Amino acid sequence: MDTKLLADLLFPNVTKTPDxxxxxxPERNLPEGAIVxxxxxxxxxxxHLGNLVQGLTSERLCHQSGGPLFLRVEDTDAKREVPGxxxxxxxxxxxxxxxxxxxxxxDGDAGDYGPYRxxxxxxxxxxxxxxxxxQGEAYPCxxxxxxxxxxHEQQSAEKANFGYFGKxxxxxxxxxxxxxxxxxxxHPWVLRFRSTGSIEHKIPFNDLIKGHLELTExxxxxxxxxxxxxxxxxxAHAVDDHLMRTTHVVRGDEWLPSLPxxxxxxxxxxxxxxxxxxxxxxxxxxxxxxxxxSKRKDPELALTYYRASGFPVQSVYExxxxxxxxxxxxxxxxxxxxxxxxxxxxxxxxxxxxxxxxEMKLRDVSKNVISRMDADRVLAEVLDFAKDYDVELYDHxxxxxxxxxxxxxxGRGGKKPRKDFAVFTDVRPYLDFFYDDWxxxxxxxxxxxxxxxVVAALNGFLDTFDIADDINVxxxxxxxIADKLGYASDMKAFRENPEAYRxxxxxxxxxxxxxVTGRQNSPDMYAVMQVLGAERVKTxxxxxxxxxxxx
Length: 551
Ligand code: GLU
What we know:
The chain has helices at 3-10, 18-24, 49-65, 85-95, 122-134, 145-157, 176-184, 233-243, 259-269, 304-309, 313-324, 328-334, 359-371, 375-389, 391-399, 401-409, 427-431, 451-464, 471-484, 491-496, 505-517, 525-532, 534-547; strands at residues 37-39, 69-71, 102-104, 109-110, 138-141, 190-193, 202-207, 211-216, 223-225, 248-252, 275-279, 283-286, 289-292, 487-488, 503-504. The radius of gyration is 34 Å and the shape is elongated. Helix 1 runs antiparallel to helix 5, helix 8 packs across helix 9 and helix 18 (451-464) packs antiparallel against helix 23. The strands form six sheets. The protein has a four-stranded mixed sheet. The mean pLDDT is 95. By secondary structure, it is of the alpha/beta class. Among the domains are: 285-372, Glutamyl-trna Synthetase, Domain 2 (Glutamyl-tRNA Synthetase, domain 2); 375-434, no CATH class; 451-547, Arc Repressor Mutant, subunit A. It has 23 helices and 15 strands. Strand 14, helix 20 (491-496) and strand 15 form a beta-alpha-beta unit. The chain binds glutamic acid.
């Protein structure tokens, strides 16, 4: 076969050569050891946790090593493309602090290795397609859908492997006259790879996450260019990752079966393959067994789920770190206040089988993350959440930010900060009693206490309450009320001889707590009253006395 003739027949307009491409996209000038990686999503509009896991892994590898992370839009399958998907993706990742140094932007491109949208790179792919034809490693195939279906049926009948290979690859060795006749007739064609692999052979391969693998060689003459001249993902990614000087490809392990074909492509194209990191899927427990997170069954797969559920960005991020790097939790325990970027992320600590997603664990991580934030930060985050998901809460907090801040400051900042919130939807039920229009008495006084005791305690409180008291003076007054009513002011004494008392000082506090907060459980009463202010506290206690029929 005269491959030069064939190459010119198929690609008459391609005049550039791979050398021209090399000159256009030279090696990057980077420090030793710098990792260049990318996200290469298809613009389907659905951004899922797997994208974030992949993005986060690539981002850490690049930025910790001083290399760039870029975004390439793999839009070769126009049918799956959703308008606006690129901006949805960029915004979603920006939200999680995954920032690209170059690549596709919302309305264009930034960087020297573009264009970064594959449909705009068709001329580049054709240079390499022509080169492969010239080398005798690619050929046109004119099979119609019907012919391919017939091959499939025949393979099924013969119990042969499926695919276009060996004797089934009917255009693989056709004479140039046949090809010319088809071209002259204007029949559509695809360009296929001429595989020399055999499924009898294994190729050794070292994946940076999965470790040493033995993969079966590829014997299929896969499609490189579709009949409209647009490449398949396989062909496009090999050309792009080479020309964009990608050093490390991080992607889902659903691509592992295609890897032998990809390695063949890199070899035929004369490219050095990048290093590969294939990430296992995110799994979850379903009853007693593990299964992959599914788009259909699991809302938590969508990234939008986390913001709408009220998880702060930092919680999701820290949680993913805990599932991605087995040593992260120890690091966090040893460095509770360090910025997360101080953690040295390593692909060596990734689980080859994939990570187990556990929402309860995410909530635990989130409680810790929020407990470490200062009140200003919590307020800012809650406002940001409430603006979109709970306008009433937003209005309450924003009406008096100093008041809101002091509510959120309760129990914060010490060695053992309160861990009240896993998600920002926990905030409203936690603090609603601080707002008079939301305040309701929801808990009853337990029936084992005499109503007259409650009334006497509340009156005793009203008689002695002074908002200016420090916490010790305040508590001494509560104890005095306890003593006066026959309740133990000393818990030890009470435990030793409970029968001798009507109750204890904690019960007296509870009488007050129900009156002031409407419930039996609340943050520290002294702190709560300091925030509520004397007037509100007294009004509520009086209202309770009224309710109890004692005013
Ligand atoms: N477009 C492919 C995907 O969305 C990219 C795979 C890769 O990163 O190479 O899965």
